[in-house]
Write a structure and sequence with these properties.
The complex is a heterodimer.
Chain A lengths: L1 H24 L2 H11 L1 H18 L1 H4 L20 E4 L2 E15 L6 E24 L3 E10 L16 H37 L1 H16 L2 H10 L7 H31 L3 H8 L4 H38 L10 H6 L4 H6 L5 H24 L5
Antiparallel strand pairs in A: 1-2, 2-3, 3-4
Helix pairs in contact in A: 2-13, 3-5, 3-13, 5-6, 5-8, 5-10, 6-8, 7-8, 8-10, 9-10, 10-13
Chain B lengths: L1 H26 L5 H11 L7 H10 L6 H15 L12 H36 L4 H15 L2 H16 L18 H38 L2 H8 L4 H7 L1 H11 L1 H18 L5 H11 L2 H29 L1 H11 L1
Helix pairs in contact in B: 1-14, 5-6, 5-8, 5-12, 6-8, 7-8, 7-12, 8-11, 8-12, 11-14, 12-13, 12-14, 13-14, 14-15
The chains are: A alpha+beta, B mainly alpha.
Chain lengths: ~375, ~325
């Protein structure tokens, strides 16, 4: 018995020692990863983001319908509930009830109710409307759907379009604007901040004053003015890039500041001096020796910048200054829920807002987790 | 003092630059108001707009001059006479159009600011004193969600809830019967009844931020040695907390009041649009869409000036409260 525990205790102690050793020899990124995986909210946020981006990539497949398919006899229908039980019996396959449509004699509004007689069982991987996947090949495969009948998990809008499908397509636009905008800010911030921090002196002064100036502008009104300057007759894809450029125009300043201050503190380190003495040129020193030193901070501020981009696109599109229909983004979808009349009749039109909040929260959690993980002094 | 002076000069320069930027921004859209006006008249089936009429409009707004002369004329009148020019669309002097709206914007903004601090600071302190408790966790969650929710969405939600549970429209700042009436006590009371919705909507993001900052600052202070010393000497918990850590923790929060104000001003137009407030926001958005350039320019200029002045006030307050900034700046500046 005692020998048994001892025998089992030995490898445990050895494993412990291995772990401790591993901790000492682990690379910076390994340590960061380890701290990050211990941050539960960050992991949760990361999972949510992964799901959202999967939806963004495969939105044609996830959405049961095309975002512009109109069901003229089912306008502003409420969300259908998924049922497992019906008339006292359990059905292993979830189903939705068909609507019965009646007309309110006073308001002439359509009133929808469940029709317990007609069920539409929901199936995985059904053949539905045909679409071109990424514009490459034609297919009819959808993640889920019904064979005959209809399924509107989040209801339909005023033109009878499926809100769920529209939100899925909106995910692609809204989330990609955040990424492309951040990529642009990244390039601008890294270049300008790098020049400012590495060369210092006059270049630094000019860059710092311009950043101060840009930051002193009220963000939303300036964006609105810029967005209003995009010509109305531009094709949608160009408007999309225009908006992305606009939202990243101010976003880079924060990153440039981080890069500059890190560079300023790093460039007097001994290893940089050693590289200079060894005859390395500026570009090489920046890319080989300095950038790895502060890349983790850059990643953190990038992650925290994405939600701002998403929120600004949403705000601009909501005002009608950003993306415009037929493009589907979360902001465009919300702009349909602008007046009290619309929301009072169809509160489910507000659901894109829920997706915005979830996406922004997920990004903040991951960003906070990364920030804690990137801090070498935290333990 | 030298620091304040330097900041003041910097502010003046920034405002001058801002006026140039505002002017460039309103020149950016392709086409101009007059051509779109002519097109609209023709589309409406009016007779052809005579060349003479166009010419007189062009002259009236000084559009025949080169761009830099237009700018000088525009800014010159603002500086010397406080005259912001005329609106194309309303055919009225801009000063007449915006005065009341600016007062209302200021009222809404200030109430949001008051809410932000009145709610944010106590909750932040409370949260820090009960770290990791259920209420702390709840407040942190509320803070996160408050920061993640775009405020126009909050406005829509409040409007929907107000409609559903009170059967009342919460939009606007007045009841219909007070809309055009002159200012009376009854109208002011009526306005106060409507004011809380935009104030809450605009204040939420700021409140969430303040809770977070106050909590963080307080936690830093509470761990310091002097707190332990005071506690060891037997000071009562209440006077211990409020006499020292709170005062220190609040310094930066009070000092950034200008930044809070600018954040509120910046977010205001979109909320005003949703809640149909008679403030500057909707007018500004329309002016931007209609290319009513002097009106749009006035808004951009005034909002930017607001922001810059707010930042200036914050910087000065911070320097007054924290000698490190003052001395550091003087050392840097030589």
């Amino acid at each position: 018995m005692a020998a048994d525990t001892a025998a089992r205790g030995r490898p445990a102690a050895a494993a412990e020692q291995d772990r401790a050793e591993e901790w000492y020899v682990a690379s910076q990124y390994r340590l960061m990863w380890r701290r990050l995986t211990r941050h539960r909210l960050a992991i949760f946020g990361g999972v949510v983001l992964a799901v959202l981006y999967l939806v963004a990539i495969f939105c044609e497949f996830v959405a049961p319908y095309d975002p512009s398919t109109k069901n003229t006899d089912l306008l502003t229908a409420p969300p259908q509930r998924i049922h497992f039980f019906g008339q006292g019996s359990f059905s292993p396959r979830p189903f939705v009830y068909a609507y019965t449509v009646a007309e309110d004699p006073v308001t002439w509004r359509k009133v929808y109710a469940d029709d317990p007689e007609t069920r539409f069982p929901i199936r995985w991987f059904v053949r539905g409307e045909e679409y071109r996947f990424w514009g490459l090949f034609k297919t009819r495969a959808h993640l889920f759907g019904v064979d005959d009948g209809y399924v509107f998990l989040l209801g339909t809008d005023t033109l009878g379009r499926d809100v769920f499908s529209r939100i899925m397509y909106g995910t692609r636009i809204s989330l990609s604007i955040g990424l492309i905008g951040v990529a642009l800010s990244f390039i601008l911030g890294l270049t300008i901040g790098g020049v400012s921090g590495y060369f210092g002196g006059f270049a630094d002064a000019v860059v710092q004053r311009s950043i101060d100036f840009l930051r002193s502008l009220p963000v939303l009104p300036v964006w609105m003015a810029l967005a209003a300057a995009l010509p109305a007759n531009w094709p949608t894809i160009r408007v999309y890039f225009g908006i992305t450029v606009i939202v990243s125009l101010i976003g880079w300043t924060g990153l440039a500041r981080v890069v500059r201050s890190k560079l300023l503190s790093l460039r007097h380190e001994d290893f940089v001096m050693a590289a200079v003495v060894a005859g390395a040129h500026s570009g090489k020193i920046i890319s080989r020796h300095l950038i790895p030193g502060f890349l983790s901070y850059v990643i953190v501020s990038l992650t925290l910048a994405v939600p701002n981009m998403i929120l600004s696109e949403t705000a601009l599109s909501f005002l009608g200054l950003g993306l415009r229909p037929p493009v589907v983004s979360w902001g465009v979808l919300l702009s349909e829920a602008q007046n009290l009349h619309a929301i009072a009749l169809a509160p489910w039109l507000l659901l894109p807002g829920l997706f915005i909040i979830v996406a922004v929260l997920a990004f903040s959690f991951v960003g906070d987790g990364l920030r804690d993980a990137a801090d070498p002094y935290a333990n | 003092m030298a620091y304040v002076l330097r900041r003041f000069v910097a502010m003046a320069v920034t405002i001058a630059l801002v006026s140039v930027v505002a002017f460039i921004l309103i020149q950016l859209p392709p086409g101009d108001y007059i051509s779109s006006y002519v097109a609209a008249r023709e589309a409406a089936g009016d007779d052809e707009v005579s060349q003479g009429e166009i010419d007189s409009m062009v002259r009236e707004f000084g559009l025949d001059k080169p761009v830099h002369m237009q700018y000088l004329r525009w800014i010159g009148r603002i500086v010397t006479k406080g005259d912001f020019g005329r609106s194309f669309a309303y055919r009225r002097s801009i000063n007449e159009l915006i005065w009341e709206r600016f007062v209302l914007t200021a009222v809404v903004g200030l109430s949001a600011l008051v809410i932000t601090y009145l709610v944010g600071v106590p909750l932040g302190i409370y949260s820090s004193l009960r770290q990791y408790s259920v209420s702390d966790f709840a407040l942190t969650t509320v803070g996160y969600v408050g920061l993640a929710t775009p405020n126009f969405l909050l406005a829509i939600l409040l409007m929907y809830l107000g409609f559903k549970y009170f059967g009342a429209s919460v939009g606007g700042l007045f009841d219909a019967k007070y809309m055009e009436s002159p200012w009376t006590l009854a109208k002011i009371v009526n306005m106060l009844g409507h004011l809380w919705v935009p104030a809450i909507v605009l204040g939420t993001a700021g409140t969430a931020g303040i809770i977070r900052v106050t909590r963080g600052m307080m936690l830093d202070e509470l761990r310091k040695q002097y707190v332990v010393t005071a506690r060891a000497k037997g000071l009562s918990e209440r006077s211990l907390i409020f006499k020292y850590p709170v005062r220190i923790a609040l310094n930066p929060i009070v000092a950034t009041i200008g930044w809070q104000l600018t954040a509120i001003v910046s977010g205001a137009p979109i909320v005003a649009m949703v809640l149909s407030l008679p403030t500057t926001g909707p007018l500004m958005i329309n002016a931007l869409l209609l290319q009513d350039m002097y009106l749009a320019g006035t808004f951009i200029l005034l909002l930017c000036t607001f922001t810059v002045v707010g930042t200036f006030i914050s910087d000065v307050l911070l320097a007054m409260l924290d000698p490190r900034i003052r001395l550091g700046a003087e050392r840097d500046g030589g």
